Input
Amino acid sequence: AQSVTQLGSHVSVSEGALVLLRCNYSSSVPPYLFWYVQYPNQGLQLLLKYTSAATLVKGINGFEAEFKKSETSFHLTKPSAHMSDAAEYFCAVSLSGYSTLTFGKGTMLLVSP
Amino acid sequence: DTGVSQDPRHKITKRGQNVTFRCDPISEHNRLYWYRQTLGQGPEFLTYFQNEAQLEKSRLLSDRFSAERPKGSFSTLEIQRTEQGDSAMYLCASSRPGLAGGFTGELFFGEGSRLTVL
Output
């Protein structure tokens, strides 16, 4: 069965600093990987996805993630944090032929002025 | 898109009572999903429909839970004889088919229905 592990339930950064949210996956076959974001009082929305094309994936709001098979990782980064990035971020995995997502526990990103 | 809507947004009930949640997906989306989220956890898959057919159910979906999507549009999730452990946010999501009808991985979530069982 596939799964994802997000390291750190909370990450705090200063405005303008690098954002790095970590996600490691476990899968016996090549996975499809996703990052979702949940802003306060809103539904989850897709930030970006990896589906076996380019290993560096760019998403909305300046976020990007790199699929590294050797490290079984799919970390989310943004060069410069903005106050509006404060939200909870979820990594998720799916497999070819499946139609469901398995989510990690989430990482709350806190951005201070 | 008008978005995925869920009703009610909040429900407080006493242990042993039945509750029903409704989800209206985005109109052209043929797949509809139910997830459950508890504090400190990510969304956990419960079940999903393609049109009116319920194609997959999680082992989390005990026999007290039942979901329907009778006409392939809105869906209901009923919990019978609620227990305190059922307290959670129940999330509904919908998605459109990808190329050749495949899974795109892009789910559009509603804001959720929060259940509190006293």
